[in-house]
Amino acid sequence: MTAVRERLIAIPRTVAVPPLRGESVVQRLHGETMGTTWSAIVVGPPRMSSDALNVAIKRALDNIVAQMSAWLPHSDLSRFNRAEPGSTHELPAELFCVLDYALAVASETDGAYDPTVGALTALWGFGPENNPQDVPDKEAMGTARGLCGWRRLRLSRSEREAVQPGGLIIDLCAVAKGFAVDSLADVVRALGCTDFLVEIGGELRGEGCKPDGTPWWVAIEAPRAAASVPDTVIALHGLAVATSGDQRRNFERGGRRYAHTLDPRTGHPVRNGVVSVTVVADTCMEADALSTALYVLGEELGLAFARRRGIPALFVLEDGGGLRERLSPAFTAMTG
């Protein structure tokens, strides 16, 4: 078997030499959150307390879950989703920030990404129950689609309020995890640490460098049939990375594979020849939402969108019995 070529991508193309620092220690922490795992590698002074880091990280993650989880019946999001038609709700700052950004991406992509598809997600069995049964019939699809639509949701930035139009179910799975990664970075930075790599469920953000002055090298998660595409390694130096694809939650019926990411424009799982999309951005919230949007948009529309916006994006595409890659211009520029 021919060895797979490894591509190294330095981001940025020159990494600033870190300032001289005194004696330091590396703390490695991990835990569970949001139905997956989190980890943090933090470089700090010898007096740095791992217990303090753990407590601060857990507090931040628990707060996000309490606000944004569709799995917790008493979260702020769940209460809004059950609220009476026409009711107005003041939202916590973090939830409002995430929802406001999600709606901005929905607008920019003309609904290819839509945080209000919760009714469809539940219908397909990918909601909190996570129990796919069968392909929904046309009548059920019509009813669920009638409850969705990002244009139905009205926000007031001045009052930090949202109006429930009736039956609207918000699903923040494609953006909340990225926001949580950014929150981990904020927590670590607030404790005086400027060199770290934080991760939740494979979405990462890196700041500064390792103690030896090298950047945080991370490998992009390999898609299915990955032997036909090169490995990709990225240096996260003040950047974040997220990947969206079809390799995790899915089910098969009648010999056809149905992935958990839905195309809000059709109501059906994405089936456009894209296996995965990886996006590099300044924040993980951006990388998370944009990778989903580009995955839904597909090869040509997604690459055109990434080109217009200057988004570094790596598309892995079906190619007969194997896979092929296409890179946006901004991603190509990083391969040097």
Please, could you describe this protein's structure?
There is one protein chain. The protein has 336 residues and is α+β, with helices and mostly antiparallel strands. It has a domain at 68-164: ApbE-like superfamily (T-fold). Helices cover 30% and strands 27% of the residues. It has helices at residues 50-68, 76-81, 93-108, 118-123, 138-147, 176-190, 284-297, 299-309, 329-332, and strands spanning 6-9, 25-33, 36-44, 87-90, 154-156, 161-164, 195-200, 203-207, 216-219, 231-236, 239-245, 250-253, 256-259, 274-281, 313-319, 322-327. The strands form 4 sheets. An 8-stranded antiparallel sheet has the order 2-3-7-8-11-14-15-16. A 3-stranded mixed sheet has the order 1-10-9, with no helix packed on it. Strand 7 (195-200) and strand 8 form a beta hairpin. The longest helix has 19 residues, at 50-68. It starts with 5 loop residues before the first strand and ends with a helix. 43% of the residues are buried. Mean pLDDT is 88; it is low at 1-5.
Question: How would you summarize this macromolecular structure in one to three sentences?
Answer:
The protein is α+β, with helices and mostly antiparallel strands and about 325 residues long.
